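Progress against Task 2.4 (sequence-to-structure conversion) is shown through the following example record, which the project officer requested during the mid-term review.
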Amino acid sequence: MSSDPVELSVTILGSGTCVPSLKRSSCSILAKIRDKFLLFDSGAGTMRKLLENGIEIFDLSFVFYSHFHPDHTGELVSFLFANKYPDGSRRKIPLTMMAGRGFAKFYDNLKNVYGHWIELAPGLLNIVELDNTGHDMREFDDFKVESLPVEHNPESIAYRITSPAGISMVYSGDTDFSENLVTLSKDADLLICESALPDELKVKGHLTPILAGEIATRANVRKLVLTHFYPECDQVDIERQCRKTYSGPLLLAEDLMQINLTVS
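Structure tokens generated for the chain above:
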């Protein structure tokens, strides 16, 4: 085990899909850089998994959405509602929520249904839309975030987070094979990549192990984590399929799996 200080800590909160499972919650990733907690997607089960990992919803500073499908946004309403308990006073940290174009309208439509129950106190919620047509980059005190559109929904984007020391993590969200994902993942320390179905069950809009491996190899990533598994993935050797195109460090995601990235 490395004695180097952890620069970026990543926890797989949900490694599954929309399919109900006792083994895998829907899509969600937690990252910690210094004292900042960043959440990527919030499918069903996210808040419970946060608690199992020792994190409260009030600890989060940023939430990033890859796209608007329910298995990625399913707990958004519940999350915002829970932030108001008991009187909204427990959230001290302003919350920034980022996603592709259309997210402000998506949130407004939810408010049309739920009203003030999902509105946080003034100054506590900031909605940021990122560019769906090309590279977008924003810098914050403790990290830099970059995004590029990927091949799934019109609003779909992948994210790259880079720490002050240059340690980087890429989260693909849902996507088919994407040259933009190769570009965004170039020389990344960690690529968390969807691999929804085995190679023989490939469907449009999603990757398989062999395609995820090809992206990781072309991008020269240092470690690959496959996630977003439908139940069919549990019936085949996903690692063996991925090894046809990728020979580097490889992990198959499980709920509450933690990956620590250090500065050597």
